[in-house]
Design a protein that fits this description.
Helix 6 crosses helix 9, helix 7 crosses helix 8 and helix 9 packs across helix 10. With 295 residues, the protein is of the alpha/beta class. The chain contains ten helices and 13 strands. It folds into two domains: 126 residues, 4-Layer Sandwich (Metallo-beta-lactamase, Chain A); 162 residues, Metallo-beta-lactamase, Chain A (4-Layer Sandwich), CATH 3.60.15.10.
Length: 295
């Protein structure tokens, strides 16, 4: 289920930021947790108390923004089992920071309501490797997850920080789903996605990408070489980029997620244009994702 399909950190009252739920034999796994995720889990038939495993593609705030709310309301509303989060470097630190944020609420309710669940022992973060070949990062009796580094952080940025960005492949007994994460065209993602049933990938209006390139050049000319415009222009995918990766990987269906600007709102990019752009490279099924869409 696509819980939120809006790309970027902007706030849209009509759409939630990026998050998806993979439900396997009644067990829910969450992929990313952008702003609005808790509301969307409550609005769906998944529910937020049932989520015990979270995967992050990367740690930008439009993919993590609702994590404090999710963990807080799980604890406050009676979840007593552990919730584990898996993601690139920084995930463990993120969970530790969120638990620290929750302490005032926990202390008040423990003193005033007789709570007994120890929040320090309930939520756990796990850093997983970002490699150039698919690497196993999680396995239980229903789901196997492999990860690979995608192309969301350029080499110039990685040289200055330890943080990385991942694409994830979720393999069940019946289905394979690849979440590209935020990424430009990536040979690594192609490797991870070979033969997948669903290829869930971000997409950006090509005219927006071109606008970002122009603004990046203007900023660089003024002495600001590393700027938000350059980041957006160089690390996201046009519809044609999505189609190229899907075709090279031989996937069955493409699902367009993390849409910028998206098929809703004043800056709407026509749904047909998203589809036509992908089909320049890929001749299979193309689905433009919507919030709460079940696939």
């Amino acid at each position: 289920m696509l819980l939120g399909t809006r790309g970027g950190p902007g706030i849209d009252p009509t759409r939630a930021q990026t998050a998806s739920a993979v439900v396997v034999d009644g067990r829910a796994y969450l992929v990313d947790c952008g702003y609005g995720t808790v509301r969307q889990l409550a609005a769906s038939n998944v529910g937020y108390l049932q989520v015990s495993t979270i995967f992050f593609t990367h740690l930008h705030d439009d993919h993590t923004g609702d994590l404090p709310a999710l963990l807080s309301y799980q604890w406050t509303n009676g979840k007593t089992t552990a919730t584990d989060a898996y993601g690139p470097y920084g995930t463990q630190q993120l969970i530790t920071a969120v638990v620290s944020l929750l302490q005032i609420n926990v202390q008040i309710r423990t003193a005033d309501e007789g709570r007994t669940v120890n929040v320090d022992q309930q939520f756990h973060g796990h850093d997983v490797p970002a490699k150039t070949e698919p690497a196993a990062v999680f396995k239980d009796d229903r789901l196997t997850v492999t990860a690979i580094e995608n192309a969301h952080f350029p080499e110039r940025s990685k040289a200055r920080m330890p943080y990385r960005s991942l694409a994830l492949r979720m393999q069940t007994r019946e289905r394979s789903i690849v979440f590209c994460g935020d990424t430009a065209y990536s040979p690594n993602v192609v490797k991870l996605a070979r033969g997948a049933d669903l290829f869930v990938c971000e997409v950006m209006d090509p005219s927006v990408l071109e606008q970002m390139r122009r603004r990046a050049q203007e900023a660089a000319a003024q002495g600001n070489e590393n700027n938000i415009w350059r980041h957006v222009a160089e690390t996201h995918s046009s519809p044609q980029d999505v189609g190229r990766m899907a075709a090279e990987a031989g996937v069955k269906s493409v699902v367009l997620n993390h849409q910028v600007p998206g098929p809703a709102g004043a800056l709407a990019y026509p749904v047909t244009a998203f589809i036509e752009g992908v089909r320049k490279e890929f001749d299979g099924e193309v689905i433009v994702g919507q919030d709460l869409m079940v696939l």
